[in-house]
Specification:
This protein is α+β, with helices and mostly antiparallel strands. The chain has seven helices and 13 strands. It starts with a helix and ends with a helix.
Length: 267
C-alpha cells in the first residue's frame, strides 16, 4: 500500500490542475452520481402501483416536501422547486447582501490588500496568519448602472502543508469570498447563484458548527465520494457565511477534517 501511495503521489505531482479542470472533475462526479440515481429510481418506480403512488403523493409526499423546507429554511442553502412544478427540489447557495461598502478599489483582475479590503467593505475578513500573501484578487464583478451588485474575490495557491501539517505535498487549497450589494434587484438575487445541485435533501451536506466563529460549515457531499488514495478526496467544497460574506473553501487531494481544521484556524 505504501509503495502504491508513493507511486501515486509521484504520478500526481506531475499533473497540474487549474481551477477549471478541478470543476470539470467535480461536475463529472456529481453528474455521474445523478445519472446512477435516476436509473436506480426509475427501476424502482416501475414496480409501484398507481394506487400507492396516489396515496404517497396526497398523503405523505406534500407533507414531506413541507417538512424539508421547514427543516432547512434557516440553513445557508435554500430549496427551490424544479422547473416542472413537481415536489423535487434543488439545493442552491447564494451570496448574502452587504449594505455599506466602498467599491472604488473592487476592480476586476486586480489585487487588493487584506487591510484595505476590510476597510472598503467595513467587514472583518477571516484569514490565517501563516498565509504569507495577505491579498485577494477581484475575479468577478457584476454592475448595474455603474453600481456593483455582486463581487467575487479569490485567493489561490495557499501553501496547504504549511497551514495543515497532515496535508499531502500534492494538496491544493484556495478561498473565495463573494457577496451581493444593496444595489442588487430581486431578479439579480434570483439569478446570481454560487452553487447549485439537484435532487436536494438533508443528505447533500455535512453540517459542522464551529463555536469559536459561531458559524455552520456546509461540506457538500456526493452520494459516492471519489478518493484519490487513503482518505484523501479529489475535491472537497466547503461553504459558510461570516459577517455577511460567503466563504467557499476548495481543496484538492484533501479530506474533510483538514478543511475543517483550516477553517478552525481562521481568525
Amino acid at each position: 500500500m505504501k509503495k502504491f501511495k508513493d507511486n501515486y503521489q509521484e504520478y500526481y505531482s506531475k499533473i497540474k490542475l487549474n481551477e477549471q479542470k478541478k470543476d470539470v472533475i467535480f461536475n463529472n462526479i456529481v453528474n455521474n452520481n445523478e445519472k446512477y440515481r435516476k436509473m436506480y429510481w426509475h427501476k424502482k418506480f416501475v414496480v409501484v402501483t398507481c394506487s400507492i403512488l396516489v396515496i404517497c403523493l396526497i398523503g405523505t409526499g406534500v407533507v414531506f416536501a413541507k417538512d424539508i423546507v421547514k427543516t432547512i429554511k434557516n440553513h445557508l442553502y435554500s430549496l427551490e422547486p424544479s422547473d416542472n412544478g413537481s415536489n423535487n427540489y434543488k439545493c442552491v447557495i447564494k451570496a448574502p447582501i452587504i449594505n455599506n461598502f466602498n467599491d472604488e478599489y473592487l476592480i476586476e483582475n486586480t489585487k487588493i490588500d487584506l487591510n484595505e479590503l476590510q476597510k472598503d467593505l467595513n467587514k472583518h475578513i477571516l484569514h490565517n496568519e501563516n498565509i504569507e500573501d495577505k491579498s485577494f484578487t477581484v475575479v468577478n464583478t457584476t454592475k448595474n448602472d455603474n453600481r456593483i451588485i455582486y463581487a467575487k474575490l479569490y485567493k489561490n495557491g495557499i501553501d496547504a502543508p504549511k497551514i495543515i501539517p497532515e496535508a499531502s505535498s500534492n494538496t491544493t487549497l484556495d478561498m473565495n469570498l463573494s457577496f451581493l450589494t444593496r444595489y442588487a434587484t430581486q431578479e439579480d438575487i434570483r439569478e446570481i447563484i454560487e452553487f447549485e445541485v439537484g435532487k436536494c435533501s438533508d443528505d447533500n451536506f455535512d453540517i459542522i458548527h464551529i463555536d469559536t466563529l459561531d458559524i455552520d460549515v456546509y461540506l457538500y457531499k456526493t452520494s459516492t465520494i471519489a478518493y484519490a488514495y487513503d482518505d484523501l478526496e479529489f475535491v472537497v467544497k466547503a461553504f459558510f457565511v461570516y459577517d455577511d460574506i460567503l466563504y467557499n473553501i476548495n481543496g484538492s487531494i484533501i479530506n474533510r477534517t483538514m478543511i475543517i481544521d483550516f477553517i478552525y484556524d481562521l481568525t
